[in-house]
Amino acid sequence: MRAALESPGLARAMGAHSPLSARLAEEAGFDVIWSSGLEISAAAGVPDANILAMPECLEAAAGLADAVELPVLADCDSGFGNVNNVIHMVRTYERRGLAGVCIEDKQFPKLNSFIEGNQDLAPLDDFAGKIRAATEVREDLVVVARLEALISGKGMDEALRRAEVYERAGADALLIHSKLTEPDEVFAFRAAYTGDLPVIVVPTTYNQVTVAELQERGFAMAIYANHALRSSLRAMRETLVKIMQDGTTLHVEEDLASLKEIFDLQRVPQMLERQAHYEALGRDLAEAAR
Ligand code: SPV
Ligand code: MG
């Protein structure tokens, strides 16, 4: 995780909610897996508004970490409560194999940044205390401080002021979030921020921005937070409608992944190989006792 953030190129993270989708991202060559709160709650059929509790988010994130070699950065919303929740969260996430946690400077319960509603910021002192606590109780876990000042309409000066405080509090990286359809304000933030921390962006709405541009502007990582979920949703919906319309699955077949693709992602060949290996060993052991 640290190598991804500190390498000269732009690291690319892909959002996931299931071990299967994390393996697809790994296969496609992404550098980091983003355990997305939006994806995890969407997959559970509930809003991204701290409806799911910390243990549910942790189970999902740990499942991703177990399934891939890549580092997993866990979206931990605003830390699931106050500083005590953050301390418990950091210890637990680190123990379960997460490479990093990201906490955002909003109130609990948070609301997804793209939903119109309460996007009020947490008081600066509260959040700075959470960041300091997180960095004091972790062993090696990367702590990302996510700035929501631009989302909440508090403006660039507030984002920069908070960035400086979070850096002094000990954050390992900053995430500057924006919901504009142009990358201008994250570019402006990157240019005006004079600190030393790597800066992460989430180019969901300003989707025309390229890796080359982000790299040139000095960003450390881009998180494509929800694209796998959105592509699978569209594909599933179209397939299901077609099956109902056609009265047969014949016409959808060519658009479907094969069962072999599924088996490969489940690591079925490796399982069978292991099984054959131990069956042979077992036979040898039994043979030797005769
Ligand atoms: C998520 O993927 O849950 C995020 C990114 O936090 S966003 O949805 O843009 O807030
Ligand atoms: Mg989130």
UniProtKB/TrEMBL annotation:
The keyword Transferase does not apply. Signal peptide: none annotated. One of its GO terms (molecular function) is catalytic activity. SUPFAM superfamilies: Phosphoenolpyruvate/pyruvate domain (SSF51621). Keywords: Pyruvate. It comes from the Bacteria. It holds the Pfam family PEP_mutase. The keyword Cytoplasm does not apply. CDD domains: ICL_PEPM. InterPro entries: ICL/PEPM (IPR039556), Pyrv/PenolPyrv_kinase-like_dom (IPR015813), Pyrv_kinase-like_dom_sf (IPR040442). PANTHER family: PHOSPHOENOLPYRUVATE CARBOXYLASE, PHOSPHOENOLPYRUVATE PHOSPHOMUTASE. Belongs to the isocitrate lyase/PEP mutase superfamily. PEP mutase family. This is Phosphoenolpyruvate phosphomutase. It comes from Streptomyces natalensis ATCC 27448.
